[in-house]
Design a protein that fits this description.
The structure is a single chain. By secondary structure, the chain is an alpha/beta fold. Helix content is 25%, strand content 21%. The chain has three domains: 215 residues, FAD/NAD(P)-binding domain; 107 residues, FAD/NAD(P)-binding domain (3-Layer(bba) Sandwich), CATH 3.50.50.60; 139 residues, no CATH class. Strands 1, 2, 3, 4, 5, 6 and 17 form a seven-stranded mixed β-sheet that branches. The protein has a five-stranded parallel β-sheet with strand order 8-15-9-10-11, covered by helices on one side. Strand 5 and strand 6 form a beta hairpin.
Length: 496
């Protein structure tokens, strides 16, 4: 059986969903191919959504245990059971899947379940789990197949004490100790989460600093907070071998150290899901990690085949993938799109405390010889906390009122900033409770005058409450200067 469409999207994660929704709203006929039995991709089923749902549950339980009001109810300091919290995360995933099914049904986008493989430049063959297959013809394709944790051949991931960021959510019980190899975003987030659970954490970093893409000020603060919580951090270490033993797992480092724990979490890199799709035969270029090479319009070496999301590498954020998908679909439907609309993606890092950032760092601006200003904004903390969520309300109350005629109200704006559409913007890292929510839509509106994509180029980190309001937002125009988040500290480069 053969079907013809204007566009076929491979993958139903954020990148695939963004491309499919934009294309169908532009009048194109669209089909989405999804290998898993439900839509949503890795973001919904074993990545962003379940891990952040688990983190939220962990934070609530830890808050309960630290609240003096409930102290008489706590008889011991045993670790919080993990199995029940994972069931809570599963309920969140089910609701997300149902919501996303509705997106495709309402917009009349056909979802084909199976594994896609290119047999011709304009034809993919989809093999269903039962063995049946069909061919889909299309003028354009968007590959949004995502990524998976990198698994080196000398690590036995079949052992129940060795897991990666996908399988860690299947742990049956809370370990007493855990070693996390890799101190990137995923490693730091899980280090915070497990330490909040009362688990002893060994965080092994293969580099000199944590999250070196952030400002030094934020890196130092994160290191301090993790150590203050009880995490043991070891920098500049490399694995020699991993040895499972009867009562745990031993990580042997090249420095001669041996670290023993109940469980080892491998969080050192990811691999693009590009294998088995027939891309090599078409001449589509990938690197040694399976990531597809694309140009500024997200086109591969074949102009009618686009790639977006984690399968192309950095920034590897759900929010970035969604916007990249919409950008690619806009390029297909309209023939062009301002590629600056998919730049400067705000990042939300869900450590404790949380971190948010946007744009270049002080270190990068200094290297480029760009003068800048630092504008700190002190967020008041409540003196009395009858409600432990008062932090967030006070932080929002500290924000100045907005002029209805100007949806952005920058804290700092150097003279001449009004007409500079090519400015990448300054880094605005911040940390604290619910700080990713403070990078609100109007605060990170990009200076592109609302052109090209729905939402005027506004970017948000995911998952946040404000992300769900995105599709209903109207395109707004505003002065073309860079608006900064009301976060501390704020950085903005000078006009040269």
């Amino acid at each position: 059986m053969e079907q013809h469409y204007d566009m076929v999207v491979i993958g139903s994660g954020p990148g695939g969903e963004g491309a499919a929704m934009k294309a169908t709203k532009s009048g194109l006929s669209v089909a989405v191919v999804e290998r898993y039995h439900d839509v949503g991709g890795g973001c919904t089923h074993w990545g962003t959504i379940p891990s952040k749902a688990l983190r939220h549950t962990v934070s609530q339980l830890a808050e309960f245990r630290n609240n003096p009001l409930f102290l008489p109810l706590l008889m011991n300091d045993d670790p919080i059971p993990l199995a029940g919290m994972l069931r809570s995360a599963e309920s969140v995933v089910r609701r997300q899947v149902a919501m996303r099914h509705g997106f495709y049904e309402r917009n009349r986008v056909r979802v084909v379940h199976g594994t896609a493989r290119f047999v011709e430049p304009n034809v993919v063959e989809v093999e269903a789990p039962g063995g049946a297959s069909e061919r889909l013809h299309a003028r354009d394709f968007v590959i949004a197949s995502g990524s998976r944790p990198y698994r080196p051949a000398n690590v036995d991931f079949a052992h129940f004490r060795i897991c990666d960021s996908d399988t860690v959510l299947r742990l049956k019980e809370t370990p007493s100790t855990i070693t996390i190899y890799g101190a990137g975003v995923i490693g730091c987030e899980y280090a915070s989460m497990f330490r909040t659970l009362g688990v002893k954490v060994n965080l092994i970093n293969t580099r000199e600093k944590l999250l070196s893409f952030l400002d030094d000020e934020i890196i130092d603060a994160l290191s301090y907070h993790l150590r203050d919580q009880g995490c043991v951090i070891r920098h500049n270490e490399e694995m020699e071998r991993i040895e499972p033993v009867e009562d745990g797992v031993v990580l042997h480092l090249k420095s001669g150290k041996r670290v023993k724990s109940d469980v080892l979490l491998w969080a050192n890199g990811r691999t693009g899901n590009s294998q088995g799709m027939g891309l090599e035969a078409l001449g589509v270029v990938t690197d040694d990690r399976g990531q597809i090479k694309v140009n500024d319009q997200y086109q591969t070496s074949l102009p009618h085949i686009y790639a977006v999301g984690d399968v192309i590498g950095q920034p590897a954020l759900a929010s970035a993938a969604y916007d990249q998908g919409r950008f690619a679909a806009t390029h297909v439907a309209c023939g062009s799109c301002d590629n600056r609309l998919a730049q400067d993606i705000p990042a939300g890092i869900y450590t404790t405390p949380e971190i948010s950032s946007l744009g270049r760092t002080e270190r990068e601006l200094t290297a480029e010889k760009v003068p800048y200003e630092v504008g700190p904004l002190a967020v008041p903390q409540p003196r009395a906390r009858a409600d432990h969520r008062a932090d967030r309300r006070d932080a929002q109350a500290a924000l100045p009122p907005r002029d209805p005629g100007h949806p952005r109200h920058p804290l700092l704006r150097p003279p001449g900033e009004r007409d500079h559409p090519h400015r990448p913007g300054g880094d605005e890292p911040a940390r604290g409770p619910q700080h990713h929510q403070l990078l609100r839509q109007h605060d990170v509106q990009l200076p592109h005058h609302g052109r090209g994509l729905p939402g005027g180029g506004a970017q948000r980190a995911q998952p946040t409450l404000l992300r769900f309001a995105r599709e209903g937002q109207k395109v707004a125009t505003a002065p073309r200067w860079k608006a900064q988040s009301w976060s501390a500290p704020l950085r903005m480069p000078h006009q040269e």
